[in-house]
Amino acid sequence: MIAIIDYDAGNMKSVEKALHFLEKEVLVTRNREEILNADHVILPGVGAFGMAMEQIREYDLEEVIHAVVKKGTPFLGVCLGAQLLFESSEEDPGIAGLGLLKGTIKKIPKGEYVKIPHMGWNSLSITPGRRLFQGIGGDHYVYFVHSYYIHAKDRDVVAATTNYNVTIDAAIETGNLFGCQFHPEKSSETGLAILKNFVNLQ
Q1: Could you say which of 16, 79, 118, 180 is catalytic?
Q2: Among the residues of 25-87, which ranges form H helices?
Q3: pLDDT, tens digit, 9 for 90 and up, residues 129-153
Q4: Other CB atoms within 10 Å distance of the CB of residue 88
Q5: Mean of the per-residue pLDDT values for the chain?
Q6: 58 is catalytic
Q7: Does the annotation mark 185 as catalytic?
Q8: Residue 138's pLDDT is what?
Q9: Is 183 one of the annotated active-site residues of the chain?
Q10: Which residue segments constitute the domains of the chain, with CATH numbers given?
Q11: Alpha-carbon distance 131 to 109, whole Å?
Q12: How many C-beta atoms lie closer than 10 Å to residue 140's C-beta?
């Protein structure tokens, strides 16, 4: 069973649909026991960092998320859900993230040919040997929608990067903890391959 954490931050349906396409059993829930007993857990999300953390705390999900990660259950953050894994964000200074990874979320700098938010397809530079990208190589493109980006303090956790007027940590991977700044559920065959790699993790 794959649990998708429901904290009213959107994007759950598209993730659920992609997993159904992969013929996986999915439960959208905020129930503590259901999340703890899941084989894999996904934290999706679109919107603002501060509001999302408020909702996670309102639904008493912060402790559950930490417990799932400590238990060793494969855990994937998607877009805003990946940003929430870190300590803080320039979007909402003073509001603490989940703090599962060291680093911050930064605003994409303006540039002459750069539109913000960043909406569209970008290629990935993949760090060799990462499980999330097993069997995926070459110039594969994935779909981004964001104005802020992950900047991990520990560079060893970075599984892929992309460039959009700045180097963006597009994916992270360490132990059982994974994150995608892009939307794998909206990234065609490449995105489905990434999700398949995640849900097949033991």
Answers
A1: 79
A2: 32-36, 49-58, 62-71, 80-83
A3: 999 999 986 668 999 999 999 999 9
A4: 18
A5: 95
A6: no
A7: yes
A8: 64
A9: yes
A10: 2-199 (3.40.50.880)
A11: 30
A12: 19
Characterize the bridge pairing of strands 26-29 and 2-5: parallel
The single residue of 16, 91, 173, 185 carrying the catalytic annotation is 185
pTM of the predicted protein model: 0.96
Nearest to 114, CA basis, from 162, 82, 152: 162
Catalytic one among 40, 118, 146, 183?
183
| pLDDT tens per residue across span 22-51 | 999 999 999 999 999 999 999 999 999 999
Locus of tokens 């349906």? 13
Contact 199, 131 (CB under 8 A): no
| Residue 146: both structure tokens together | 């964001």
Among the listed residues 34, 36, 38, the one whose alpha carbon sits nearest the alpha carbon of residue 19: 38
Q: Helices (H) and strands (E) in the chain — how many of each?
A: 6, 13
